[in-house]
Amino acid sequence: MDKYLKIFEPAMKKWLAEHYSPEEAKTRWERTVALDEKWLREEGDLGGKKNPMANNMLEAYAFFAFYDAVDRNFGSEDLQLLIDAAMGKSIRMLSHFNMNRLLKRPWIVRLIYRYLENYQKKAERFRGNAWENTWKIRLNPEGHDKGIAFVYDTCPLNDFARRHGYIDFLPHLCAIDQLTCSAAHGKLIRHKTLADNDGECNYWILGDQEPEALRDVGSK
Q1: Residue at 220 is within a domain
Q2: For residues 192 and 202, is the Cβ–Cβ distance under 8 A?
Q3: 1, 46, 142, 182: least CB-packed within 10 angstroms?
Q4: pTM of this prediction?
């Protein structure tokens, strides 16, 4: 079983037990596991441990498999409860970081951009080969002078969701980005997503007390 499905297993099984008979819950969990394993074999892992972004795809397989196994009868509120049960403690620990302070330190911003640039270079080299259809990224195309900004021109989660008919559920997974940023006293300004057919996913991450963050409305 994939590591993410193992992380979510207790919370997923609890949800199944609350909605189905024991026998039906067991059957639907087995379908979740089978789908997850099938996609890992057939869809790939985007290069696995060598690709720092690959875990996002593995996490998505687990969620999409569960979504399918319960006949897609699983909405945003259900997902939020599941994430809180499985990952809530880890997410709440992000509160020890404060992006309002951290992103005012130039060396930290440079370090983050260096990490993103390293991914960008490797993605350009391995995309279409060992890293399959991994994210295609551009760094700070609008020239923001604060925070961290980048754009994804492609997204394997979006590609997968469209191929398998899960595009209605994908925005709920995209919202996890907002959740983690908020936990670290940050604000993700994102008005375009591939899930909503906007042609790109544009990220601008600031501390949540920055004037631009306080003014922002409608981010996805």
Answers
A1: no
A2: yes
A3: 142
A4: 0.91
